[in-house]
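[job 4471] stage=fold_predict status=RUNNING
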Amino acid sequence: MASVHYPRTFQGFLNWKPETRYKYEWNKGEIEKTEHFKQAEFYIIQNLKRLFFKTIASQSGGELMSVVDIMTSSNQLRRPDFSYFTGEQIIGMAKSINQAGGVPLPAFVIEIISPSDNQNKILEKNQEYFAAGVQVIWLIMPNLKQVHIFTSPKNVQICTDDDICSAKPVLDDFEISVNNLLTLPS
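[job 4471] inference complete, writing C-alpha cells
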C-alpha cells in the first residue's frame, strides 16, 4: 500500500488533488481527513435540494452548495457538506469580490455525520463556525435518525421523528421533519 504524502503548506494544500473518496480540510497547519458521502446518504442530499428549490432564497438566486472551501479564520479552511449562499454572495464570488482566502462566509451550514466522525472534532468545528459568524448549523445523523440544530454554541435543538428542522432565522421557509428528511424520495 502506497503512503499518502500530504502537503505541508496552505498553498500546497490548495493546489493538492487528493483522492475523492475523502474530504480534506486545513486546520491550523494540520490536514483533517473525513469520509465523503456514502451512497446511502445521497437520498438526504436529494431531499435537501428539493426542499431548497422551494424556498424564497432559491427564487432570489441563493444556492445551497456542496463542499465549498470556506475560510473560517486565517489558518482554517473548512468544506461543509452544504453551505447556503445568498444571490448577492454568489455574484460577489463570480466577481471575485470576496473576503481574503476565498468565498464569503455562509450564514447556514449542514454537515452529514457518519458513525466514524469524531464527536470532539465536530463540536470544535461548530465553535469555529460560530466564531467566524455562521448563524445556524445542522448536524444530520442518519444512523441515529436525528438532526441537531445549533443556533449558537450553547443553543441546540435535537430533532427526531416528526420534529420540524428549521434554518430560521437564516431561511424562514427551509423546514422539514426528520422523518421526511431521512426518507427516500418517491
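[job 4471] summary: The radius of gyration is 16 Å.
[job 4471] exit 0
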